[in-house]
Amino acid sequence: MVTFFHSERERNTGATSRNGRKRMLLRQSLVAQRRLRRIVASICAIGALLAALITVESSTRMMPALVTTNAVHQGETIDAADVAQTRIPYHMALEDAVTASDAVMGMVATVSIPAHSVVTFSMVQNAPLPQSDATIVDVKLASATDSFPVGSRVALVTGTGCETQQAQESQQTQGKQAAQSAKTQASGQNSAFAGSCTLTTQALVMGKAHVDDMGSPLTPMALPASDALAVIGASGPIIAVQQ
């Protein structure tokens, strides 16, 4: 009888011990799950914070840029007084922006740039370089003075026939100028413009037209010295023709 109760007590004790271990394992599992949820929530919060910081940083990111201090018209040469360095909010569309004033000094505006505008490399080009044997003269054109961008090559044609032009030059010049008149006549004979004289086919537009003291617009052009003499000596109106 004693043995029976003793065995029964041992069985009850073993069952209680097993139940206790199960409850302990269950509590540990619940604690681990809660801890894992807290860790996941913390990671999500950190990720959201990093994303917010990246967004703020990208929206406030600054970049160096060059802006105009005054309006620069098409064909004008850019100098130090026309631009200033500053910093602006970054934008992908402005990756072509000029960042240093030295990069555009002496360059020519290909478009008109309003004051306080960001300057990009697509708005400027290198100033045209005349040939080594060329000279630069101001030419009074009867045609529109702003028809040709800086750097254009044009032919200069006068309405006075080359024979008349040659006769006038022969009366005014001797020696080399007389020989130049013969060259001008030969050029005029090959001209595609009937009754006209082609003074040169190698004129290079060097800058925007400016107005002289008499109010006449003059366009600076580079051309061979011999052709420059013909242009200066022309008595009739001169027009420029795109090459």
From TrEMBL:
Q: Where is this region: Disordered?
A: 1-20
Question: What protein name is recorded for this chain?
Answer: SAF-like protein (Flagellar basal-body protein or pilus-assembly protein)
TM ranges are: 36-56
Comp. bias regions, Basic and acidic residues: 1-12
Coiled coil ranges (UniProt) are: none
The record, for InterPro entries, names: SAF (IPR013974)
Top-level division of the source organism's lineage: Bacteria
Boundaries of each SAF domain copy?
A: 63-125
Gene3D superfamilies (UniProt xref) = Antifreeze-like/N-acetylneuraminic acid synthase C-terminal domain
The organism's lineage is: Bacteria, Bacillati, Actinomycetota, Actinomycetes, Bifidobacteriales
Alphabetically sorted, this entry's keywords are: Cell projection, Cilium, Flagellum, Membrane, Transmembrane, Transmembrane helix
